[in-house]
Amino acid sequence: MYDELAERIEEPLDLVAERIVLLGGYAYGSVRMATQNSIIAPFPGTDAEGDEDPMNDPSFLTTLADPQYADHIRESNTQSDEIGDPGTTDLYDQITHIAERGTWFIEGHLQRYHGGLREQGQDPS
User: Fold this and answer.
1) Between residues 116 and 31, which one has the greater pLDDT?
2) Which 8-state DSSP code applies to residue 124?
3) Greater confidence, 120 or 59?
4) 64: nearest Cα among 120, 113, 13, 110
5) Angle at CA 89, nearest 5°, toward 8 and 71?
6) Mean pLDDT calculated for residue range 26-50
């Protein structure tokens, strides 16, 4: 699931970096630089507390399902439309679709494995 989500967001990330440079900005090219400027909460296990196995922590998926990312993209989309930048608005439209679909996909997994389906969320035998 994580690989599929990463693949879906990879192309728009490249397009965003190209757009930033085209508009005269600086595209943060390393993970460290990007995380320092991110509005998204840190994943479990990546802070000073040092969660030993964040992949098994349900809060990891909860962090990914947080609608804050999609909400931020929608707000930025509105701003780019208001200032008359159709190229950036179109890019935000594409990214919003990917973010919303990814959030929906993750929320489905959370419901399935945390009590949202039959058998208390366990896989049927």
Assistant:
1) 31
2) P
3) 59
4) 110
5) 65
6) 71
What six digits make up the tokens of 18?
Answer: 């190209």
DSSP letter string over 77-118? HHHHHHTT-HHHHHHHHHHHHHHHHHHHHHHHHHHHHTTSST
Q: Which single residue is written with the structure tokens 């929320």? A: 107
DSSP 10-54: HHHHHHHHHHHHHTT-----SHHHHHHT--SPPPTTSSTT--S-G
pTM greater than the 0.85 cutoff: no
Q: Which two tokens stand for residue 84?
A: 């008359």
Q: Stretch 49-74: mean pLDDT, rounded?
A: 66
